[in-house]
Design goal:
globular; four-stranded mixed sheet; alpha+beta; five-stranded antiparallel sheet; 27% helix; single chain
């Protein structure tokens, strides 16, 4: 009988009390083999709210989105790192996105390095002062959601560290303030004229196969927007990551793989299943 190729499910509610040791072992096994997992019972995850706010943002007129773009896309904007970025024609990844980081306090006194400038950079928002109704609601929701996903990532990194015998706070410093964790809303519009390079058989590639470079990535999937695919660890085949209501998808990046001695940064891609 052919093996069923599905991602393991990790229940974060088991991280407390006597069930933690078993969860640590289960997570370690999943991340040294498949490298991708489903996460359930993640505090603060609300896929309906996430989809609703994402649709609202990407329905804004392009000029309003570009008004809060990164400087490389709009010289009138001052942010180098945080903000909106549009689809880049002909790029390997055909997407647009809106990115924020954690809420920051006032910059410290004196000169700051380039790295610190990115970390303390303010978020940009589609505010009502620019004639956009609803921007304050988006801001309030995204700030809270960013904090919740940061807390989930802290817990996951503690579990991961314990899985290979390190102290549970081994990765704690990377999330001490100020830190560079990013919340990104993404939309994958259809490629207008997919070239040969953007196809794999009948599949149109929205984001080419790659490994993340980060520590941890938490992904939301939606029933009406499939397309995420991963390399299966045993036979190198491509499998679909089907939507599971109320579940996030998690994978690790190369940075965590290099520093963990065995965790797998799995290759994955996004294909066009919807035409929008």
């Amino acid at each position: 009988m052919e093996e069923e190729k599905v991602l393991p499910v990790i229940d974060l509610s088991l991280a407390k009390g006597h069930t933690r040791a078993g969860l640590v072992k289960e997570l370690h096994e999943a991340l040294t083999t498949v490298g991708f997992i489903y996460l359930k019972n993640v505090d603060g995850y609300d896929e309906e709210a996430l989809l609703r706010h994402s649709k609202w943002f990407f329905s804004l007129p392009m000029e309003q989105r570009m008004a809060i773009s990164k400087k490389s896309f709009n010289p009138k904007c001052s942010n180098e790192y945080r903000g909106y970025f549009p689809v880049i024609p002909g790029a390997v990844s055909h997407k647009e996105a809106f990115e924020i980081g954690p809420k920051q306090g006032k910059p410290k006194e004196g000169l700051i390095s380039l790295e610190e400038k990115f970390i303390i950079e303010d978020n940009q928002w589609p505010l009502e002062s620019r004639g956009i109704r609803g921007g304050q609601e988006l801001q309030a929701w995204m700030e809270v959601y960013h904090e919740k996903m940061t807390e989930a990532s802290r817990e996951l990194l503690s579990l991961i560290a314990e899985g290979y015998g390190a102290p549970s706070d081994f990765y704690a410093d990377i999330f001490r303030d100020p830190h560079l964790s990013t919340l990104r809303l993404i939309r994958y519009p259809a490629r207008p004229n997919p070239t040969y390079e953007a196809r794999d058989g009948d599949a149109v590639i929205q984001t080419a196969e790659h490994q993340d470079t980060t520590k941890v990535t938490l992904l939301a999937t939606f029933a009406e927007y499939p397309g995420l695919q991963v390399r299966w660890w045993k036979d190198d085949s491509i499998i679909d990551v089907t939507h599971k209501p109320g579940h996030l998808v998690m994978n690790i990046g190369q940075l965590l793989s290099y520093t963990s001695g065995g965790l797998k940064a799995t290759k994955h891609r996004v294909i066009d299943c919807c035409g929008d």
